């Protein structure tokens, strides 16, 4: 979602701020801006659209200065335009903000009655005006920020500068990520480590309700009571090379092809010749998992689909009841929690607002424990969980998630195996499942070789406006994920159904203009699926079938487009069959000329409710 970069340095910071914003473009945004302190004045430039458009305005009239803040905005309060773009200025203060302030209307009205004239529709300008009012009362910038955030309800990460205190940036966070980049003779703030990797790899992650005060020579962190607090410094493992496209046309294509490596890294040192290794979920993890009698999985979007696959796995192999729920719904109902239920939160970023709020809500509902499956080690979801398993996908820049999904499946497969072993799964079956999982990186690598044939399919699909995806069993969530990818980046309307539901309504849509895309691995449900496909064929529908190389498909079903791949067995087939669906969505989007890496209206990390 929105991105923040700020700097206090001995050099001109505008180029650094703009470079940081470019590193955050993958998050999704609709406007951008920077503000720099120069000779006691705030110089600002903002623009609707991409960072490059704002940069062009800056280059036309550049301004020096060693202290500044920058922002990419994803509209919440107010339409995308220059007036609503950040930074917002109120008197001597400039401020940028990620999140949503829930009591902003009340605060705005109080300020308006006090004489403040607002120039935007945003909740952010309210915060700038509040800080300005506190400065008029004689407080320092840090004191003014603390006094302001004490009155806020909602989520925020902010960075603030004042012309009265050149060389200083004050930041604060609650419910939205903010971190400090520690340099030599310069310090930085960012909403994501990727914004800072070109200037430093030394990172300090802020906790809830932290307020940070940086100058070029110092960095101090305070609580809302004004007392100093200590936070650990870490060395980020992200490299600048990791966020370059290299030989690939788009980040999404690069990330699709990184999946064999990413899945292999997720499994490395966690599964061996005799099965899942001990304590991979953290100290005391094996003991806690041995007590589990039910599982409750909470996630959003693609992560939710991964959780749906895990439901099939855990119930099949561990014989434990599993409930999978969208995080935004969970927190607004009173879920029934049975004894010894494990709460599992799945999040790529670890800062997804709905997932984080659901996990915090789970604390009062009596779960046995919480487990985070996440790609960011220092994220809020990870820090606040009892147990954790990192996915090791590396940076994912494309908004449409690919390698995050398959690495989540790999992590959930490890969880399934551990639960199944505690529940007495037959040793021969357990060994077979472990073998399947260890082969997964190679199976994905083989599936990627289908790309030239998938390009041909994409050329045929690119002019369609609708598509249906079908799957059975654990492949139904894969069909959901395939349809999500197609609609996210190509803007083709797509829906997914369990194949057995076809005749209960969706069959009415099938004609020669409605392509039906099906995943058909070998297994006990194959014959059922083949019957469903015959229903499509009988009504003139066009079939695109991804079939297991070992599946027996008769001529009547296979007429039309069919590609074969080795699914590797029931356990890992969902991860393998995901890959060609990702490639199909990608190449359709490329042919349609959409913005593949930054599709319209979407953001990578949804840090507001």
* Morphology: globular
Low-confidence stretches: 555-559
By DSSP, the count of extended strands is 27
* Beta fraction: 15-25%
Oligomeric form = single chain
Fraction of helical residues: 25-40%
User: What's the mean pLDDT score?
Assistant: 88
Number of helical elements: 20
Structure at a glance:
The protein has 20 helices and 27 strands. By secondary structure, the protein is an alpha/beta fold. The chain has an 8-stranded antiparallel sheet, with helices on one face.
In terms of topology, how is this protein built?
Layout: E1 3-8, H1 14-23, E2 31-38, E3 41-48, H2 51-60, E4 67-73, E5 88-90, E6 93-101, H3 104-113, H4 124-136, H5 141-149, E7 154-162, E8 169-174, E9 179-182, E10 187-190, E11 202-205, E12 211-214, E13 219-222, E14 228-229, E15 233-235, H6 251-257, H7 259-267, E16 271-272, E17 275-276, H8 285-289, E18 294-299, H9 301-318, E19 322-326, H10 327-330, E20 341-347, H11 353-362, E21 369-374, H12 380-383, E22 387-390, H13 403-422, H14 427-438, H15 440-447, H16 451-461, E23 466-471, H17 475-490, E24 493-498, E25 515-520, H18 526-538, E26 542-548, H19 555-558, E27 561-565, H20 573-592
Parallel strand pairs: 18-19, 18-20, 20-21, 21-22, 23-24, 23-25, 25-26, 26-27
Antiparallel strand pairs: 1-4, 1-10, 2-3, 2-4, 5-6, 6-7, 7-8, 8-12, 9-10, 9-11, 11-15, 12-13, 13-14, 16-17
């Amino acid at each position: 979602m929105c991105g923040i970069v700020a700097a206090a340095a001995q050099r001109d910071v505008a180029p650094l701020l703009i470079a940081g914003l470019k590193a955050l473009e993958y998050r999704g945004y609709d406007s951008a801006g920077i503000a720099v302190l120069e000779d006691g004045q705030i110089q600002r430039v903002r623009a609707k659209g991409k960072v490059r458009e704002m940069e062009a305005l800056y280059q036309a009239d550049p301004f020096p200065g060693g202290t500044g803040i920058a922002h990419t905005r994803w509209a919440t309060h107010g339409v995308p335009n220059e007036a609503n773009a950040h930074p917002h200025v109120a008197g001597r203060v400039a401020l940028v903000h990620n999140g949503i302030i829930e009591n902003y209307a009340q605060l705005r009205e109080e300020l308006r009655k006090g004489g403040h004239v607002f120039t935007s529709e945003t909740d952010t300008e309210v915060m700038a005006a509040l800080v300005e009012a506190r400065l008029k009362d004689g407080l320092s910038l840090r004191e003014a920020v603390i006094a302001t955030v004490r009155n806020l309800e909602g989520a925020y990460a902010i960075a603030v500068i004042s012309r009265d205190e050149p060389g200083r940036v004050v930041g604060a966070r609650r419910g939205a990520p903010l971190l400090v980049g520690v340099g030599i003779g310069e310090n930085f703030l960012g909403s994501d480590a990727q914004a800072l990797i070109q200037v430093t790899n030394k990172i300090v992650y802020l906790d809830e309700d932290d307020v940070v005060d940086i100058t070029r020579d110092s960095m101090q962190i305070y609580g809302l009571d004004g007392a100093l607090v200590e936070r650990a410094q870490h060395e980020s493992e992200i490299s600048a090379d990791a966020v370059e496209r290299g030989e690939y046309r788009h980040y999404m294509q690069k990330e699709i092809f990184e999946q064999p490596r990413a899945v292999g890294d997720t499994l490395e040192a966690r599964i061996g010749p005799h099965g899942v290794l001990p304590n991979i979920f953290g100290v005391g993890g094996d003991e806690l998992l041995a007590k589990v009698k039910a599982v409750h999985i909470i996630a959003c979007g693609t992560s939710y689909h991964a959780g749906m696959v895990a439901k099939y796995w855990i119930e099949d192999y561990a014989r434990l009841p599993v409930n999978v729920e969208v995080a935004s719904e969970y927190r607004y109902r009173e879920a029934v929690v049975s004894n010894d239920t494990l709460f599992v939160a799945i999040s790529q970023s670890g800062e997804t607002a709905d997932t984080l709020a659901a996990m915090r809500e789970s604390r009062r509902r009596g779960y046995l424990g919480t487990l985070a499956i996440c790609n960011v080690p220092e994220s809020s979801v990870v820090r606040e969980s009892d147990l954790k398993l990192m996915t090791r996908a590396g940076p994912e820049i494309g908004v449409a998630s690919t390698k995050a999904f398959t690495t989540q499946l790999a992590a959930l497969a490890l969880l399934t195996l551990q639960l199944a072993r505690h529940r007495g799964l037959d040793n021969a079956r357990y060994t077979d499942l472990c073998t399947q999982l260890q082969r997964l990186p190679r199976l994905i690598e083989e599936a990627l070789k289908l790309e030239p044939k998938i390009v041909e399919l994409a050329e045929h699909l690119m002019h369609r406006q609708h598509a249906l995806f079908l799957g059975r069993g654990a492949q139904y969530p894969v069909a959901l994920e395939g349809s999500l990818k197609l609609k996210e980046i190509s803007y083709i309307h797509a829906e997914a159904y369990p194949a057995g539901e076809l005749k209960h309504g969706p069959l009415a849509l099938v004609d020669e203009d409605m392509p039906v895309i099906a995943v058909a691995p070998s297994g006990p449900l194959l014959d059922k699926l083949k019957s469903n496909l015959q229903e499509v064929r009988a009504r003139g529908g066009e079939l695109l079938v991804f079939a297991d190389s070992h599946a027996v498909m008769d001529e009547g079903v296979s007429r039309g487009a069919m590609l074969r791949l080795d699914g590797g067995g029931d356990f890992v087939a969902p991860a393998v069959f995901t890959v060609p669906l990702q490639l199909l969505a990608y190449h359709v989007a490329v042919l349609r000329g959409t913005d593949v890496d930054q599709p319209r209206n979407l953001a990578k990390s949804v840090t507001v409710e």
